[in-house]
Every structure is written in C-alpha cells, then in structure tokens.
Description:
The chain has 294 residues and is an alpha/beta fold. The protein has 13 helices and eleven strands. 46% of the residues lie in helices and 25% in strands. The strands form two sheets. The protein has a six-stranded mixed β-sheet, with helices on both faces.
Amino acid sequence: MIFAAIDIGSNAVRLLFSHVYETKGKVYFEKEELIRMPVRLGEDTFLRGEISKPKADKLVAAMRGFKELMKVFDIVAYKACATSAMRDAKNGQEIIERVKKEADINIEIIDGKTEAATIFSNHAEEFLDPMKSYLYIDVGGGSVELTLISDRKTIAQKSFNVGTLRMLFDKIDKDEWDSYKQWIKKNTQGIKPLNAIGSGGNINKLYKMIGKKDSKSLSYERIKAMHDMLNSYTFEERITILGLKPDRADVIIPASKIFLTAMKHADIEKVYVPQIGLSDGIVHLLYEEYKKKN
C-alpha cells in the first residue's frame, strides 16, 4: 500500500510517497519518493501578512503536479496539511479554496498543537531508551513544536512562533522568544537524563554534513561548531563552497541557533536525528485510519 502526505510548510512544500506493508505482525514504513518544492510561503506571510499572487500561483502549480503524481503512484489515501505560514496568512482560507477548485486537493490548516501531535505520531521514541526522557524538537520555517516525552508518554507539548524564516527576517517577537526559553527551562527542570529528538530539514542537513555514520545523534558541541563554521561563510559561499541549496543556505544558521537554545536551556547534551518529520507523521495517521476502516 502506498500513502501520500503533503506538507505545506513555511519554507518548502513536500510530497512524500510512503510504502506501508505488514510482515509477521509488524508494520514497516518505507519512503518511496520525496518531492520538495521551495515555494517559501512564509516569506510573504511573515513580512506582509498575506500570501502574494505569484506565491499562490506557484503553490497551485505544485499542487496540480502533486495531484498527477498521486494518480501515477496509485495511492490508497492522501492528506495535505498546511502549517505556520498558511495559519498566519490573512488570505490562507482563500488560497485553500483556490487549490481545491484548480487542483482538486483538500488542504487542512492545522494548529501548532495538532502539528506537534502529528509529528510525534512517528513514535520515534519507541526505538530509544525507555529509561530516559526526551524533548522532541521540530524546527520549521514558521514555528517550533516541542514535545516532552517521559516513560514513552507525552507529558507536555507546546508550539512557538520562533521558526527559521521568522528569525531570518527578524520577525520573532521578543516575548515569544523569551517564552520559548522559559517553557523549556520550566518543563524540563529536574528531568534527568534528558536527550533530544530533532526533526526538520535543517537538522537532517546538519546531520548529513557532519557525516556521522557511527551514531544517530549529534552533540551540543558538534552543532555549535557547525553553527560557527556556517556563520564564517557568506550566503554565496554556503551555496558555492558547501553545496547548500539557496533556500537552505540562509535558514540553516537560524535553525542551529534554535536547536542550541533549546538544548542549552534544557541542559541537553545530545540530539537524536531519526530523519523524520510532519509528512512521515501524516503517513502514520493515514495508515491508522485505513486500519480502522478495513
């Protein structure tokens, strides 16, 4: 069975095709294909409060293409979720109606709590040490979703508007940034040992750039060293010398700062990088819905 998940984020729009199969009582999720389009809706929303016609046109064109690809893959079901940029855009609902009319795709705008819960539905914590607690950190372009896990159960969850694009454009409210740090410090106080689980395109890229093969984790020191190294290059050098895509080269530094801040205030030494995100969570939920009906 193949399921499709569409993640309409602030920096990019992604379409994930995932093959789900059951063998000997176990369920396996295998990524078939991932298509990423750097539409960057947040550039409009966070600077002007609404999504411009050129960006909306790009989104509609991408959705038309996604619709055709879903026909080719003969999917069982799909779900399209829009996050921070579409949540905050004055004309978000209008664009959703246009996508439905022109591309025949239903988009659901999800709030921060739902986004965090969907990401957490990947159950990455099941593969980690049950004797430890974890802070799940998902860093996106418009928001950061935090989930505190202890004994494989969610004990606290919160979404903050401190995403990478907001930071890049200096659009993070000081009170929101302070609340982010205070929430982490307050909710993780006294929880030891505590590690982090990181998700999002930027932490995945940092992991790949560091080239770790012996471990699925990155230390605070390694991320700090990468942050300082990236900062020493210009935007153009990050593209030409380091080989980063333009829409990654500018947001990877804010992303590393957001991760480092969380790790510092929670006194976390390591972050595990299972290389999963919202689209993977959507696939898990689609499969669970399918099983209930069949």
